[in-house]
Design a protein that fits this description.
- By secondary structure, the protein is an alpha/beta fold.
- About 20% of the residues lie in helices and about 30% in strands.
- It starts with a strand and ends in a 5-residue tail after the last strand.
- A 5-stranded mixed sheet has the order 1-7-6-5-4, with helices on both faces.
- The chain is globular.
Length: about 130
Amino acid sequence: MGYLTLNSKEVGGFMRKANFKGRCQKRSLEKCIDVCKTYDELQYTYANILDEQEDVLEIRCNVLLEGLEEGAYTSDFVCVKENNDLMVRECVNRNLLTKPMTIKLLEASRVYWLRHGVDDGGVVINEERTI
């Protein structure tokens, strides 16, 4: 998986359980068929970026990873690109990247999507800040 760093000030999480009940912002995006639900600033910011990318035709948010051994988790974004290939992105805050559960879930997502023929997977992380 590749990495993309975004300038995001708010700390959020990583892959969420399918029935996650945290604070949520609901909004309409041009390329998102359903209501786009974002749970932190990093996910919100990246949804805007995806909506503006010319090669992204459709955005799906919080897509359930069906039958995942680790439980009912979702991928943050699954996008259909111009060539009809899928692109998957997980949003993870930098401070959680080395946590064992984060590593386990990112690997589970990577393997899940590879099994479904998706090889364009990546992780979006927030920018490191120095004071």
